[in-house]
Write a structure and sequence with these properties.
Helix content: 40-55%
Bound molecules: zinc ion
Largest sheet: 7 strands, parallel
CATH class: Alpha Beta
Radius of gyration: 18 Å
Length: 267
Amino acid sequence: MAAVRRFRRAGGTHLFVATQQYGAQPPASVEEYEAQFEQTERLAKAAAGEGVTVYPVIAPYPIDLLDLSDRLGLSEAVRVQESALDLAGRWVREQRAVALGEVGRPHFPVTPEVREAAESVLVHALEVARDVACPAVVHCEDLDAAGFRGLAELAARAGFPVTRLIKHYARSFVAPADRAGVVASFVASRSLVKQSLADPGPWFWETDFLDDPKRPGAVLDIATIPRRAAQVATQGAEAVERLRIPFDQAVRSVYGLAPVGGGTRSA
Ligand SMILES: [Zn+2]
């Protein structure tokens, strides 16, 4: 909540809060994932009480599959993740979350069996997101043009609209023509902020802020985006117009949400 207050003091009004592992080990059953989502919901409500609009985003974290596979075997691990995705889809339908995320695959090399299992879970995630008509926030390795194409092909396999597929943690600027329609969420470093401002969009900025006491400041501080926006806004009226792309247009076109003011709505 101290971080949320810092965000608000910097001018922040809306937060996407993605679920994460809160205990010592990743969840190993759908019931444990439900408990994790409930913790996220409590955090989102508390944050909304600080005067920001909070959009919860939930899914079983793709990397959990590795730990789960060691404990339960790969096929049972896949079954648990798919059931947890079905649960997350029900939460979206009940408007307790706005998107499925993070879904995806490990961003580091894994065995072909694990890679294949992770991609089958990702396709299942996209099918669930298609059925409940929500965006999917994808965690994966940094992508070049071929990588974006591959991700768009996976979405096509699931019948999922690529215009609602968000590549989270985009660390390299790839031109819009090379993103195959996938929506990039750029890490809000100074250089990516500068490069993305010339891009017609839709795209987002993100911090991937963790608030983990063991990793202070990781990845970027929560107040980074309102601070960057304030800097951009000093460049004049045209620059202010550009800010509508990540803060208004993309939120509407990708999420179907209408961000207004800095209300207290929680989902
Ligand atoms: Zn991630």
